[in-house]
Amino acid sequence: MEDDSLDVVRFWERLGLPGIIDVHTHFMPEQVLRKVWAYFDSAGPLTGLEWPITYRYEEEQRLSLIRSFGVLRFTSMLYPHKPGMARWLNDWAAGFAARVPDCLHTATLFPEEGVELYVKEAVESGARVFKSHLQVGAYDANDPLLEGAWGLLAEAGVPVVMHCGSGPAPGRFTGPEPIGRLLARHPRLRLIVAHMGMPEYGEFLALAAAYPEVRLDTTMAFTDFSEGFTPFPAGQRGRLADLGDRILLGTDFPNIPYPYVHQLEALERLGLGEEWLRAVCYRNAEALFGPVA
């Protein structure tokens, strides 16, 4: 994987950056990650296609590798699929952030009794970003049980990376319409739409245009893999330029079926210029989360 690292480093060095910031990476308890990998291996119904894991390594090797790429800040995206799981995941993520200081302290939530309390506890303990996965969790972002938690996160200014688009397979509560209703009630919520809202790219870009605190991450978007089944519409490319200050690099490392550098190459071939790339790969996340120490 040395060549992978060299290719990534050459990319950000050409842009004159000190490194890159990746807002969508997965570190989670080993027993949970193994189950996630097994799901991808089985081409489960939420993927429905062959999905080889490129970076299937032990945790320490994955950490060493992402650092060798020059990723200065990353996240430990995790998510529950049933009640009673989120608090346990948050406890693990807090411990992970304590021993891995270049990881942004990540937390999650689920519509259940007590959610507002453990979200408050996570924020007070230093959580910098939350993950919400409407597809895997199979819940409505507008569930009344979540109302207090969204309000708390909006007030605290803590971003939420949310898988709310209907790709790679639609969920019962995915799509732009329920997210539009959520934002109408919580317009200050710092929502980061994962995967550029794939496949409803245009609709989620429109929400970002309407709500100044909405952002999108690039995770898997524009790559050969995703373009093969849900291509980004050429007519929307101008919006990428217009919203260049609210698009953040995300990759899904380590759960990607291609080399890490391919995500960066896919962004570069959009032809939106080096200043756009510098913003997406570093400066926008720096503005959101603060300078890298």
Any overview of this molecule?
The chain has 293 residues and is an alpha/beta fold. Helices cover 44% and strands 10% of the residues. The chain has 13 helices and nine strands. The chain has helices spanning 2-14, 30-41, 59-68, 86-99, 115-124, 134-137, 147-156, 176-185, 201-210, 224-227, 237-242, 260-268, 274-289, and strands at 20-21, 71-75, 103-104, 106-108, 129-133, 160-163, 191-193, 215-217, 247-248. A six-stranded parallel beta sheet has the order 4-5-6-7-8-9. A three-stranded parallel beta sheet has the order 1-2-3. Strand 7 (191-193), helix 9 and strand 8 form a beta-alpha-beta unit. Helix 5 (115-124) runs parallel beside helix 7. The longest helix is centred in the last third of the chain and has 16 residues, at 274-289. It starts with a helix and ends with a helix. Residues 21-290 form the Amidohydrolase-related domain. InterPro entries: ACMSD, Amidohydro-rel, Metal_Hydrolase. This is Amidohydrolase.
Q: Compute the number of strand runs.
A: 9
How large is the count of helical segments?
A: 13
Which strand order do you get reading across the main beta sheet? 4-5-6-7-8-9
Average pLDDT across residues? Answer: 95
> Hey, roughly how much beta strand do the residues contain?
5-15%
Which word captures the global form? globular
Low-confidence stretches: none
**Largest beta-sheet characterization:** 6 strands, parallel
Work out the radius of gyration: 17 Å
Percentage of residues in helical conformation: 40-55%
Helices and strands, in order, run as: HEHHEHEEHEHHEHEHEHHEHH
Structural class: alpha/beta
| N/C terminus separation | 27 Å
